[in-house]
Amino acid sequence: MHKEVFDFQLNTRSGVPAYLQLVQQVRRAITLGRLRPNDRLPTIREVVAALVISPNTVLKAYTHLELEGLVISRAGVGTYVQPNLTVRPLQNHSSLRRRLFRWLRDARAAGLDEDAIDALMAAARLEAGDSEGVA
Amino acid sequence: MIPAVETTGLSRRYGQTWALRECCLRVPAGRVVALVGPNGAGKTTLMQLVMGLLEPSAGEVKVFGWSPRQSPTLVLARVGFVAQDRPLYGGFTVRQMLGFGLRLNPRWDDGFARSRIDLFEIPADRKVSKLSGGQQAQVALTMALAKRPELLLLDEPVSNLDPLARRDFTRALLDAAAQDGLTVVFSSHVVAELERFCDYLVVLNGGRVQVAGELDALIEEHRIHTMETTTASSLAGDPSVIDVSPGPRVSTVVARKSLALGVGDPEARLPGLEELVLAYMNSRGASNLPLPVLRGASL
Amino acid sequence: MIWVTWQQHRFEALIAAAMLTILALLMLPTGLDMAANLQQSGLAACIDHSNALGACAAIREGFQERYVDLEKYFGITLTALPALVGVFFGAPLIAREVEQGTHRLAWTQSVTRLRWATVKLAAATTVVVLSWTAIVLLTMWWHGPLDQLHGGPFDAFDIEGIAPVSYALFAFGLGVAVGSIIRRTVPAMALTLGLFAGLRLGIEHWLRPEYAPARVITWDTLADKRPAFQGAWVFSTQLMDRFNHVLSDAQIQALFRQAPGGPTAVNQYLHDLGIRHAVFYQPADRFWAFQGIEAALFTVLAVLLLGLALYWVKRRIV
Questions:
Q1: Can you tell me the ipTM of this complex?
Q2: Hey, of A12, A54, A120, A121, which one would you mutate to test binding to chain B, going by the most B CBs within 10 A of its CB?
């Protein structure tokens, strides 16, 4: 069990709905190993106090995560990361990682700045049919 | 689930002027509702009708299924109200203000009220008129929350408060909402700060409801496009377009995502709350409500 | 709700209590003084001989002159006092609440506005009635010697008996009703004062003489003494011709233009024309009957006004 409770951040200008940001942060944390099975997520009240957002937004995020099978809510106790979750550690994507680094290096060498790289990524995502995170 | 607030054709007239017209709303329980609109749009009138302070000129309003004018004790006990300018008795001390609440509300939670006052370090024996604006706002909020309402109506509660006091107020409000599943209606003509903590939006303009719905869904239904002004002007009259802000070369178009020209625009982005609200307020006839109401909602 | 009423209005209540205490403190020594003087001067002893002349008349005049100012000042104060109830208690009661916007706080607690108003008005009305009864009792004690001097309390009709309590009640009801309708404290106070004065004096002047058929006494202009009207309420002194018609001001002016100069000659002149002095009065024994009628009249008005205020609060105020 981690000693600290997980910390949420909120970027109001990202164009991504608040509840989705919370969902993404939990997903990312699980993938990166910062949240492990059976870890307790902050209570709705704690998130509301920290971020000053609507309790419904937090509830929506947690419900979404529960439907994805990533967390489980125990009434009166709290919300926890699924104990049975098997997370493929990121290390197994080492070949993908290497290829990504090589591409980035090539793109920069070709004279693309960061904005151009972002634009290319967004266009590629759209083509590939990515439905989330429009901006 | 009984909606927290349901209005059907709700209207209110003062002499020849209609402050509110054909207002149809169905606010689900447990939401934090942003009620926005320019000054004089009818926000206060709507809240007063929900509270039973005013009688409708036409139509009806129901709070958790009850009519505020016909079942006043049932509604009054369940709804907390902080009116504009946060009225309090200036000559009372804070303690006496709580005593007032205790004697007039059967469901008053005095322990809760007193612990809130202590938490915000408000001196209980000071006269209300001698408190700062932020402290008065907290006292007014305490008065409304301590009667354990199921619905909380706040009419421009943070106007004239400095940003710090505003943040404290909102945080305290949301904490109470998180604890009790409270439905909150927060009216303001300053839209930007509401985006963060509201999840349901109602836009009032000229006494009519232009927009009503879940905030995330509403935002997801719309897109902001940047396109050449000549292209933008060809869109005039397209029902999917909400508002066009024309520039010399390039215009900003706020439209529903169903806009034919907008589909596949890689630059399209989701509107922020303020952009969405401004777009609707700039275009009087626009509404996100179903067509039959739209016909009645014309200028 | 009673606690709330007290909390909100305790400032006015305390000021009122202080003023009444001062009034009582002024009345006590002066009242005792008058009562003592009544005995010591011998007036009490000789006063039973009505129409007394000679020595008793002198004592009478002495007593009268000694206390004429006192009687006047206290009389005016006590007569005007009910107006203060309406202006400072009644008018602001609801007007100030609405003017300051606190009705949006008071009427959104868990109590209906009708109940809120009813309890407030009931509590305030009770206080007004009880305190005014005390004032009247004190006044009746204080005025006792003067009543004996005048042969009855009719001269002090406005400040003794049950009518004054009804005036206070009426003033209060009027203030509350005006305040509920106008909803601005200062204009409501002014209007209450005006309406109260108008109605109160109007009723006194035009209606009160008519509560029962007036009696008339006439006497010759040449007579050397007037009839005594111990304790009666004389409300009209006129000249009457031999057909029992009251002479109008115009007719009197015409007569006096034709009359010879000098008072004795004038009296002779009038006598020769058959014109007599006439006095319209209500006899002393009708005092309580008249008190009852006037009190009933003002009480009914008060109740109607309080009802109007409640109606306005329930249906007409935002």
A1: 0.86
A2: A54
Contact partners, residue A51, CB within 8 Å, separation at least 6: A8, A10, B196
**Is domain A18-81 annotated with CATH 1.10.10.10?**
yes
Distance from CA of B220 to the nearest CA of C (A): 37
pTM (whole model) above 0.80: yes
Average pLDDT, rounded, for chain C? 89
CA distances from A32 to A88, A89, A90, A91 (A): 9, 7, 7, 10
pLDDT band of residue C97 (cuts 50, 70, 90) is very high
What element of type H or E holds B282?
helix B273-282
Q: Identify the closest residue of chain A to B218 by CA–CA distance.
A: A17
Alpha-carbon gap: B12 to the closest alpha carbon of chain A (Å):
31
pLDDT score of B291 more than 50: no
Query: Maximum CA pair distance of chain C?
Result: 82
Q: Is C7's CB within 8 Å of B92's CB?
A: yes
**Is residue A2 helix, strand or coil?**
coil
Chain A nearest-CA distance from B295, in A, is: 31
Does A56 lie at the interface with B, CB-CB under 8 angstroms? yes
Q: What residue in A sits closest to B195 (Cα-Cα)?
A: A12
Mean confidence (pLDDT) of chain B: 87
Give mean pLDDT, residues A125-135: 63
User: B219–A17: do the CB atoms touch at under 8 Å?
Assistant: yes
Q: Stretch C242-252: mean pLDDT, rounded?
A: 85
pLDDT digits (tens, 9 = 90+) for C219-244: 888 777 777 777 888 888 888 888 88
pLDDT tens readout for residues B43-101:
999 999 999 989 999 999 999 999 998 899 899 999 999 998 899 999 999 999 999 99
At C308 the pLDDT is 95
Residue of B nearest to A20 (CA): B216
Q: Which residue in C1, C11, C96, C108 has the most chain B C-beta atoms within 10 A of its own C-beta, making it the best mutation to test that interface?
A: C108
**From CA C1, how far away is CA C110, in angstroms rounded?**
11
* Residue B247: other Cβ atoms inside 10 A: 12
Q: Which of B48, B79, B88 sits opposite C105 (nearest CB)?
A: B88
Instruction: Point out the residue among A13, A55, A126 whose CB comes nearest to the CB of B174.
Output: A55
CB contacts of C104 in chain B (<8 Å) are 53, 81, 83, 87
All structural domains of chain A with their residue ranges: 18-81, 90-128
Whole-angstrom CA distances from C251 to A50, B154, B266, C163 are 96, 75, 106, 37
Neighbours of chain A (3+ CB pairs under 8 A): B
Domain boundaries, chain C: 2-211+285-316, 233-282
Q: How many CB pairs lie under 8 A apart between chains B and C?
A: 62
- The dihedral of CA C137, C142, C145, C149: what is its sign? negative
Written as one string, the DSSP assignment of C155-224 is GGTTTSSSHHHHHHHHHHHHHHHHHHHH--HHHHHHHHHHHHHHHHHHIIIIIGGGSSPPEEEEEETT-S
Any idea which residue has 């985006």 for tokens? B195
pLDDT at B293 over 60: no
User: What architecture does CATH give domain B5-206?
Assistant: 3-Layer(aba) Sandwich (3.40)
pLDDT higher than threshold 60 for residue B102: yes
- For B31, which residue in chain A has the nearest alpha carbon? A56
Using a CB–CB cutoff of 8 Å, tell me whether A116 touches chain B. Answer: no
